[in-house]
Amino acid sequence: MNRIQWLALAILIAAAPVATRSAEPVVKRLDGTTIEASQIDATVVRSMREASVPGVGIAILNDRRVVYLKAYGARDMAANLPLTVDSVMTAASLTKPAFAAMFLQMVEEGALDLDKPVYKYLPGPLPEHPDYRDLALDRRYEQITTRMLLAHTSGFPNWRRFTDDGKLRIFFPPGSRFAYSGEGILLAQRTAEAIAGKSAEQLMRERIFQPLGMTRTSLVWQPQFESDFANAYDARGKSRGPQRRKTPDAAGSMQTTLRDYSRFLQAVVAGTAPLEKSRALMLAPQVRITSAHEFPTLDAETTTANDAIRLSYGLAWGLYWTPFGKVFFKEGHDTGWQHYAVCFEERGLCLLIMTNSDHGEDIYKPLLETLIRNPYTPYEWERFKN
């Protein structure tokens, strides 16, 4: 980002609205200290400048309530438009926990059983469906359950397009280990759609978005988003524009805002409607993680480095343990979009970071450690800048 661009961005940051609830809210941190809005501003702006991140949204929850909500920088550098708390951004994999919350409502209602083989919910054998013909010679698909799909233990790759031959395969015995998989979430989506007779967009709107007042959130692009949306910026600072998705994808197509996703995060940590029942299922550990890194997903290298925090996975949420109790977290990563959500469950303290940049992950460490005093993040496992 050149000097002129940064000058324009500095003007946008200076003109940004103050955080909600009060002109100078005071945020409580894990270690018992507090941080004022002006200190948050200084940390965020400095981090953005050093990493060349055009736009950042920050939401902080104390005692299970949103106490800080503010957008910094630009949603459109060329047009000199500021990012707002209502600017629509691609959620990327932050979509997955929201979908899991909806899916687990169906489980609670008895429409789905987490431990029933998923193929039994679909008409005909799984390999008879066009997208799953590659599994015809591997009967292990009959062992895969929806619990495995949501916990990323199905044996699927992240995406088949990343494999050597571009085909979908089962790479290890289902349920035996963790390997992050968008393919697994997509199969869970098709299962829910088949049972409900509705699209994932309809299901999410009825069960999650509308009840939580997420009025600017959808799995597909909506006309009303045109009034305020963010462009994505790649590693060279080039605008990739918005993602105007037409097909719902539970693994990553959700379009949302800082304000809306903070409402979802608050519902999860507080266990309020419509998540009061599904919350316990989502945040229950399903598998311990021993892999050295989250990506590449099928890498066989293991480590004991995360044993002290008991790094695990629940249903669509990562988990670890600290002296302050259980933590749940989730990343969102797509070209030009990098986000991170983390909550200390017992404290009701959460931090949501949303960025429209391929450099977004470079600012996580200073934000996590300064804004909420969280030194426990498994940076190496997540391959974040440490």
pLDDT averaged residue by residue: 95
Helices and strands, in N-to-C order?
A: HEEHEEEEHHHHEEEHHEEEEEEHH
Total number of distinct structural domains = 2
Q: Report the top-level CATH class of the largest domain.
A: Alpha Beta
- As residue ranges, the low-confidence spans are 17-22
In the CATH classification, which architecture of the largest domain applies? 3-Layer(aba) Sandwich
Strand order in space, largest sheet: 5-4-3-15-14-13-12-11-10
For this entry, give a set of tags:
single chain; 386 residues; alpha+beta; Beta-lactamase; nine-stranded antiparallel sheet; 15 strands
Short note summarizing the structure:
This protein is of the alpha+beta class. The protein is 27% helix and 18% strand. It has helices at residues 3-15, 37-51, 95-108, 146-151, 182-196, 200-209, 258-270, 278-282, 364-371, 379-382; strands at 26-28, 34-36, 55-62, 65-76, 81-82, 89-90, 232-233, 239-241, 255-256, 287-288, 312-313, 318-322, 325-334, 337-344, 349-355.
Explain what the structure shows.
- This protein has 386 residues and is α+β, with helices and mostly antiparallel strands.
- It folds into two domains: 3-92 and 218-382, DD-peptidase/beta-lactamase superfamily (Beta-lactamase, 3-Layer(aba) Sandwich), CATH 3.40.710; 104-196, no CATH class.
- Helices cover 27% and strands 18% of the residues.
- It contains ten helices and 15 strands.
- The protein has helices spanning 3-15, 37-51, 95-108, 146-151, 182-196, 200-209, 258-270, 278-282, 364-371, 379-382; strands spanning 26-28, 34-36, 55-62, 65-76, 81-82, 89-90, 232-233, 239-241, 255-256, 287-288, 312-313, 318-322, 325-334, 337-344, 349-355.
- The strands form four sheets. The chain has a nine-stranded antiparallel beta sheet with strand order 5-4-3-15-14-13-12-11-10, with helices on both faces. A two-stranded antiparallel sheet has the order 1-2. Strands 6-9 form a two-stranded antiparallel ribbon.
- The chain is globular.
